[in-house]
Structure to design on (689 residues):
């Protein structure tokens, strides 16, 4: 939606500027702030209703999601330990699952960073199930790190296994409750 | 770096398949958990995490698998179309898992509170259930315990030998135990007579006694071991030791005072008698010493007087003077002898005698020597009295003293009664000499056996008669007591031990 009548905005700002002389200090400050907001937000230019989300933005969002996931798993471990829940086998396995998810998140964030953000690594197929990993400035160790980081299922599968084991322990320990006695 | 694609490819494919399998299994287990404990908020949290990870696994792993398929079949365009959608779903599932996890701590706290409340409810429910199921039995048990307790305390109340009294704060009697009723001589069977509209003040002799008790109770909440006199039905008094305390009774209106009252009249009398006996023993010792010291000079004076009398012409002035000296010295000697008798310095010459015969001889003697024109002497002899071991002369002296006192007390008109009896339990015979005379004042009762104490005008009595009698009776191992009230006459009671050989049968 486009906003604005240019002459009206200018008139308002002039009127506000003139009125400073007759106002008390608070009112003066208010008027100045109001004027600045009007000038900045409603300039005499074309306005677009929505912003485009193309290009690298998707990678950033995905990286933030990974970071959020990592942070939440760290918090979960902290709370589980603080509440002493890790003494129970079920929660102890869930703690291990959270730890593996943290490692997995770090791993995938690194891959996304190298692959899509700084594009420091390039992979070429050589055929016969062979690949060539090339890095900027020809850093051999970075290629090795990248190659190993691509094996991320070695982290997320154990995380899921630990989660499953934790849940199974909990299932054994939970006794069925009579209906109507709980609180939702 | 050139490397084999096989490790990456195989880990990707196998890992993707395993991710789907384990995510599916985890979701299934979380569903079972939810089914088992549907109201558990933590299980709900786990279900959401598992659901998100399941969606993530499907999206990512299926995407990876498809990617491998499309790459192998050289359909990169299809993978390019699917890839953004798969990535977006992955991103969304991370956010869901992370968002749900952020609320884990609060959920856990809420869950803990719920568990605590549930436990409290469960405990309360179980208690209620137990009470509901066992209420009748519990009430029965409690009632039985109450009955036993009530009986126990009722028994203490009923069988106590001391008075137990419960009153209102203003002294109105709430309850009085049988011993109390007996003490104040109220018919124990008549509840109305005992406590109906009566106050404790009615039984207190002093007008300020209740005030004193109330002051103690108000100030300290109790009164402890204070002595008071209770007035009995016949007007006589009884010394009691009173303790009491304030109590809030659940059954009575307002506060009540619980008293424990002990009859100490007998103990007090005994203490008085012991003090009297001690006093008389002390006086006896003193008298004995003085009498011995005076007796010798008197003997010398009498001897020399009688020696001088032999050389004097009868009816001469000097003879008459010496006779006067002789008479007064003899009088002094008689007093000294009485004092010695009181002090029991000479042991009695005891023989086995019938008390009845002794009493009759004394009555005959007194009738012969005294004017008994308007005085009636009555005798009540107990049948078959055992003989007693006594010094006839001295016991006769005692009886004569008592009879002469009685004659003096009735003042030429009245009745004197001599009663003999037997106290089998104490193996003693008793002789009571009572009269209908003017009686003895209360303050004189304690001094009546003191030497030289007399209520007769000066010159009419030495005040040694009862002292001597006391000494003689004590010398026989007996006792002499007096009961008297002013205007009601007096009663002296001798008790003498039965002869040992006879009493031992």
């Amino acid at each position: 939606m486009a906003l604005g009548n240019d002459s009206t905005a200018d008139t308002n700002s002039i009127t506000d500027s003139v009125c400073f002389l007759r106002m008390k200090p608070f009112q003066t400050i208010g008027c100045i702030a109001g004027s600045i907001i009007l000038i900045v937000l409603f300039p005499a230019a074309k306005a677009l209703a929505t912003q485009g989300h193309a290009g690298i933005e998707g990678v950033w969002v995905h990286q933030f999601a990974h970071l959020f996931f990592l942070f939440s798993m760290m918090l979960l471990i902290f709370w589980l330990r603080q509440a002493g829940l890790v003494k129970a086998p079920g929660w102890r396995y869930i703690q291990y699952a959270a730890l593996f998810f943290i490692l997995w998140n770090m791993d995938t964030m690194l891959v996304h960073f190298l692959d899509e953000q700084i594009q420091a690594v390039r992979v070429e197929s050589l055929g016969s199930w062979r690949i060539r990993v090339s890095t900027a400035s020809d850093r051999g160790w970075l290629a090795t790190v990248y190659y190993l980081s691509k094996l991320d299922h070695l982290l997320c599968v154990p995380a899921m296994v630990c989660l499953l084991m934790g849940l199974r322990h909990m299932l054994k320990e939970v006794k069925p409750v009579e209906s109507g006695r709980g609180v939702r | 770096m050139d490397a084999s694609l096989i490790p990456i490819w195989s880990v990707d494919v196998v890992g993707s398949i395993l991710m789907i399998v384990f995510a599916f299994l985890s979701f299934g287990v979380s569903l079972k958990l939810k089914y088992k404990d549907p109201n558990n908020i933590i299980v709900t949290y786990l279900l959401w995490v598992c659901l998100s990870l399941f969606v993530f696994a499907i999206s990512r792993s299926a995407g990876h698998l498809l990617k491998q398929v499309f790459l192998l079949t050289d359909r990169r365009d299809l993978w390019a179309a699917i890839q953004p959608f798969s990535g977006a779903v992955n991103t969304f599932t991370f956010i869901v898992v992370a968002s749900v996890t952020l609320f884990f701590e609060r959920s856990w706290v809420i869950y803990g509170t719920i568990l605590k409340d549930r436990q409290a409810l469960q405990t309360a429910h179980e208690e209620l259930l137990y009470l509901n199921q066992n209420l009748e039995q519990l009430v029965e048990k409690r009632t039985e315990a109450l009955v036993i307790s009530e009986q126990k305390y009722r028994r203490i109340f009923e069988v106590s030998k001391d008075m137990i009294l419960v009153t209102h704060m203003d002294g109105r009697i709430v309850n009085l135990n049988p011993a109390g009723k007996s003490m104040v001589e109220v018919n124990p069977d008549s509840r109305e007579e005992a406590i109906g509209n009566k106050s404790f003040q009615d039984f207190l002799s002093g007008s300020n006694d209740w005030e004193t008790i109330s002051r103690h109770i108000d100030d300290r909440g109790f009164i402890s071991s204070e002595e008071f006199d209770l007035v009995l039905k016949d007007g006589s008094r009884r010394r009691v030791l009173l303790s009491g305390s304030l109590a809030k009774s659940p059954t009575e209106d307002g506060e009540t005072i619980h008293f424990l009252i002990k009859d100490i009249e007998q103990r007090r009398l005994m203490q008085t008698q012991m003090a009297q006996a001690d006093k008389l023993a002390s006086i006896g010792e003193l008298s004995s010493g003085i009498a011995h010291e005076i007796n010798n000079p008197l003997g010398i004076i009498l001897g020399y007087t009688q020696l001088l009398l032999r050389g004097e012409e009868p009816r001469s002035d000097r003879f008459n003077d010496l006779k006067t000296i002789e008479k007064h010295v003899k009088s002094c000697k008689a007093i000294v002898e009485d004092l010695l008798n009181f002090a029991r310095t000479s042991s009695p010459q005891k023989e086995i005698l019938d008390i009845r015969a002794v009493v009759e001889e004394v009555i005959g003697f007194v009738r012969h020597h005294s004017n008994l024109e308007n005085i009636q002497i009555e005798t009540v002899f107990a049948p078959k009295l055992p003989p007693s071991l006594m010094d006839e002369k001295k016991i006769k002296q005692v009886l004569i003293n008592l009879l002469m006192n009685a004659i003096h007390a009735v003042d030429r008109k009245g009745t004197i009664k001599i009663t003999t009896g037997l106290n089998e339990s104490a193996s003693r015979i008793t002789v009571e000499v009572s009269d209908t005379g003017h009686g003895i004042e209360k303050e004189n009762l304690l001094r009546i056996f003191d030497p030289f104490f007399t209520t007769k005008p000066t010159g009419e009595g030495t005040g040694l008669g009862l002292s001597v009698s006391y000494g003689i009776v004590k010398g026989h191992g007996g006792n002499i007591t007096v009961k008297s009230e002013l205007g009601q006459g007096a009663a002296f009671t001798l008790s003498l031990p039965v002869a040992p050989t006879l009493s031992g049968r």
